[in-house]
Fold each of these.
Amino acid sequence: MPRTSERGGPETRARIAGIASGLFVQHGFDAVTVADVARAAGVSSVTVFKHFPRKEDLYLDRSADAEELLRAAVRDRPDGMDVLDSLRVTALRLLEERHPLSGIDERSIPFFRTVAGSPALTARARELGAELRGTLKSELADDPAFEGDAALLAALFTAGYETMLVHAARRLVAGDPAESLEADQRARLDDLFDVLRGGFGAAGSDNRIRPLR
């Protein structure tokens, strides 16, 4: 395959990631090398690594989107809106759009299966989760309007959201339709933010958060 121009930013990055994703789904993450991706994309391995420092990042490329969503929820929230309400609005929007980061996008089923089948991807996903927690902590700590414990809120929110996302993804892969998951996820989001604001006793009159089923 003739080599395409190796200059470029977002378009080149998106094209490489798209080609890599197709190869990983078709052949399995561990069976595809960075050289295979570079060859299929018509670029050099150096160019691939320029955009994606690690092979796992070729597939887990939405972490940058998640990072920007967290930053925007803190920095760009309307005057008078606190951080928890802003994070809740963001999470509900992802759910309503069935965004890949909501866990209920049926187009993501091959992605979820590939991640679950690769220890390397699973480990990297955990690392990226920790990085997102750090991003939110830093944004909260730098926000003059936020007076709480930045580290604690960042840890609780990211852990809670990750738990919900993984649970929904597993149900989606198991065959549950997205329509049946959306209402369940919305109720759990309400529980999550009630708990973050007021403690476990705020999540319903019976003082119990909904069990994962």
Amino acid sequence: MTTSREVLVFVPNLIGYARIILAILSCYYMPIDYVTAGTCYVISGLLDALDGHAARYLNQTSLFGAMLDQLTDRCATACLLITLAMFYPDYAMLFQMSTALDIASHWLHLHSTILSGRTSHKAIDLDENPILHFYYTNRKFLFFMCAGNEMFYTGLYLLFFTPGPTVAGIGLFKLLTVLAAPVAVVKSLISFIHLIAAALNIASLDAAQRDKPKSG
């Protein structure tokens, strides 16, 4: 019989705790040391892929681990965007809206998943939105979109300090940021679809609940 304490120390959850520590260190160094901050942030992001593989390989998937993974992703990205809003005040509202959309869409989508009886926010039914279905069932595409989105915001952060080493006459960080920009835009559109689809799903659950015959 598995105990709650055992769940807390599942290997993928231990990786999750390491991600949190790295994210906190990254936040501490963001204003003063872009090398340390960037390194901690990137490693934390890479571990996001590792914990999922570990959970499946070791048969240690858990609701706690899924929640921990989601919260770490959202909080780490939000902290980076807060820093970007300070570094680029003229674009602060864009970063604010991006943060709000990211958190709201994932929160509503996750609750829609739980309320509808599925155990994973990635378990999309075939009769639901085809864009979200492809997004969550194609792991390579999902990784590409998430990595590209993070590359864009990380690139903006690094550009505040340095354009990076020159590649073909252009700074590496600037080049990566420009290449990743379309991915970040598409990722935001997918988040918006998340928001709308989840809202419709929850509204349909409300409608079904109201239509149930009342006892007595």
Amino acid sequence: MRLSGLASGMDVDAMVKKLMKARESSYDKMVKNRTRAEWKQEDYRAISTKIVDFRNNKILAYNNSNVISAKTAQISGDTNALTINKTNSSAAGNLAVNVTKIATAANDVYTFSNPTNTLEQLGFIVETEMVGGVPTPTNNVSAMINGKKITVAKDAKLADLAAAINANSGTLKATAVFDASGKLSLAATQTGAAGLNVAGMPNIGVTKTTITAGADASVTVNGIDYTSKNNQFSVNGFEFTVKAQTIAGSPSIISAQQDNNKIVDTIKSFIADYNSLMGAINSELAEVKSRDFTPLSSDEKKAMTDDDIKRWEEKARNGSLRNDNTLTKLASELRLAAVSLIGGIKDEAGNSISIGITTGSYTEKGKLILDEKKLRAALDTDSDKVTSLFMDNSKGVFRSMSNSSMSALTDLSKKAGTSLVSTDLTGNFRSDSILSKEIAEMKGRERAMLRRLSMIEQQYYKKFTAMETAINKFNAQAGSLKSL
């Protein structure tokens, strides 16, 4: 039980606080150092997520052949016989396409003599169910279309049957049309020779049935025959849909060409992403530490507004990654990889041709600038050489930058515990990283310091308690002497 200076008249709590304040300053310093380490780890994570995004979401996507080596197709000859759906980067040469048959859907038409009658009256089979072991008629009729049952009320009409079929067309793979003249038309929703399988249509009440079988599409491409149930074909990287038979003697000629517009758009996007990452890295490397601003202790925060705390800590965090070795190395390697782009390509005579990519001023530290007109001219000269600068498997820019980025991410993961694949700014840190271990050790020392401070505080109170007890005894003895 603590005494509060009743005998001595001293403010014991205030005196203990003053005595502890000097010692607690050492603890505050420990917390501030740990806070700096945590801020640094968080800053590493922030830049790491940008590197992950650049490598995994940008570079790897640009390195896809269908993006940087995009091609488009041209049709000559009979241009009405087919349309191009897609042209893959593997598309090459010319295809001479003769369309001999278009895929069609099967169609059955039933003509009823009394179309206003109910389905039961028209001869549709009434379903039965077992009641007490005896087959008993129900109030429904049914039919089978492509192996699936369609059920409607027996007193329904043909129009009702058509509506029920259309409501379930996805399951039945068929649609229906009915007109007042008494015709019910069933059509397969898919083209091809597989046809339309209908069972359960009445033998009575139907005066005429017309069945039209479905057919597969057939084409001849450069002398080779192909068939398709849905009018779509994929040959040599070209994907196309046939629409009509080819005019005799005038085949449709499909030829592949580089899609320069898409290539230019891809390179423009790459340069924007590269400049964004380099700007972020250079900003971290050049950020000056604010030595006059340190992390705030809990007591210091109590004397400040939230806005003041925010502004103070923004300045206190500055420069945590200044001149970081890993980021310096990555920036250097990315700039080095970009040198091949600045060098451009060579024509057949060995003359250099710019692809329109240059660097900014020295102060812009590796920023790339694009002259789109020169890029298009280089693509017109030799698009394969231009795309090879980016996509070459051994020394292409994309491969080099991807490797350098992964190397940096690996170093950052070991150093700060950041992720190799995540762009989550709130993700957990690896506990076995250098910074994670340092922070854990700092927290351990802080806990030990708190225990020590608690013991010292208790010792102070014990001393003051002993003093108060002694004073009380002295006062009691003095009072006894006066009473004698």
